[in-house]
Write a structure and sequence with these properties.
2 helices, 253 residues, twelve-stranded mixed sheet, alpha+beta
Amino acid sequence: MQTKIKLIKSSAVVATLFSAVLSTTSLALSHELVDKTELKTSINTSENAKAVNNIVNKKINISAIDNADNSKSALMAKLAKIEFFSAEFNQQIFDDAGNELQQGSGLLSVSKPNLVNWQTTLPDESLIVSDGENLWFYDPFVEQVSVYTLESAIANTPILLITSNDEKLWQDYSVNQLTDNRYLVTAKNENARVKSLELSFAKSVYNVELSAFNILDATGQLSVITLKHQNIAPKPSLFKFTVPEGVYLDDQR
């Protein structure tokens, strides 16, 4: 808010009497002194206001950073307690207007470090396997396998974050704790294919269990995945992939 300063200007009084001239000059000097005092006060007030605003903004920024760091630490602490799991999943896919596009189901197995087997059985078969170094995507319908380095794949597949506590892998994402058991992981890169990942955990005092996760991509398409019938340890063979004979290999490493 800008402070309006009313500047009072004195006009020299034309008079033949010396006393009148002195009186007018004295009044002008008085007004000028008042003007300068008001201006100085206004400047000081403005500077003080700016200083206060800067302090408040810094506190807000520091608070926001602290909250983000605390949320990320809390989420990583939860994920650190999940060494492995396998579960059935149901998936719903919605467009940016909220219309359901597709339903699916399959099996998801996870083990640390960086091991994933995501097998979709309905409506079409597909397979995603992370062997700890590479990410393999197999589409039997088109008879093609695509393979990426794990590091590059994480940028577009943040669900892989649940398999690792490496802070370097989390640097490209911010975390907001929505509730005690829900966290929103958002990509810092505006051009990321996956904009956000929401993780939900089952309420339990005995163990940490991932119950659902949502994936929002750059087109506004939302995938809602719920997990059920979680088992204990998946077989190690699930995290190994061999390219089937006669299938085209698209090597992106």
